[in-house]
Every structure is written in C-alpha cells, then in structure tokens.
C-alpha cells in the first residue's frame, strides 16, 4: 500500500491520515516500512504526446488507439492486485502511475512491439 507523506525536521506527516490509521488498524506483528523520494509522475504533456503517438499507430495499423492502449498496458506493465473482503482481484496497471523515466521506457517498448517510430518532439 502506498501513502503520500512529507518529511520535515525528521517528522513524517501522512497526507491522508484517516486512511493511514484505517490501514494500520488491519495490521499486526512485524511489518516492513519502505520510504523513498517520490518520483515525478508522467506529465500531462507526456500524456498528450502518448495519445498522439497512439493515433499514429492507429492510422498505420487500423486498430483503435484505445485498444492499443489497453493491450500495451497489459503487455508491458505489471498488474495491480487488490484484495477486497478476502478476494483478490487482478487489475491492469495504469500509465498515470509511471515516473517520467519509466513512461519513456514504456514508449520504447511500444515502439519495439509495433515497429512504428516514436515521433520526434519539435521545440
């Protein structure tokens, strides 16, 4: 489970403290706490670029961009597992959770898979 937090003067402040408390109440015994710097998620500019790239793939393959998006998520991103009332569900990963760097790697994988070049950014 991931929780967003801020550290200031060696003090950890959880952003959604109610959800944090609820989550902790369901745990007991030994746990592992993994804290690291937050990675910058992909930007809205990267998202626009991604959908432009998918539309290029759509034009070249005849397959809908949304379908390509769904296939690529399942092919290249690890699934997310969620447990609700003891039942585990497998969900496709979301590109919104990727860091900027990982999003670049994801585009490279789509390029290799489809054989369609990633367009060059024009500045």
Compressed to H and E, one letter per element, the order equals: EEHHHEEH
Write down how many β-strands occur, each being a DSSP E stretch of 2 or more residues: 4
Low-confidence residue ranges: none
* Portion of residues within helices: 40-55%
Tally of contiguous helical segments: 4
Helix- and strand-based class?
A: alpha+beta
**What is the overall shape?**
elongated
Topology:
Blueprint: E1 5-8, E2 11-14, H1 17-25, H2 44-61, H3 65-76, E3 80-84, E4 87-91, H4 100-114
Describe this structure in words.
- The structure is a single chain.
- This protein has four helices and four strands; from the N terminus they run ββαααββα.
- A hairpin with a 2-residue loop joins strand 3 and strand 4 (87-91).
- The chain has helices at 17-25, 44-61, 65-76, 100-114; strands at residues 5-8, 11-14, 80-84, 87-91.
- Strands 1-2 form a two-stranded antiparallel ribbon. Strands 3-4 form a two-stranded antiparallel ribbon.
- Helix 2 crosses helix 3.
- The radius of gyration is 19 Å and the shape is elongated.
- The longest helix is centred in the middle third of the chain and has 18 residues, at 44-61.
- The mean pLDDT is 89.
- It has a domain at 41-114.
- The chain is 44% helix and 15% strand.
- The protein is α+β, with helices and mostly antiparallel strands.
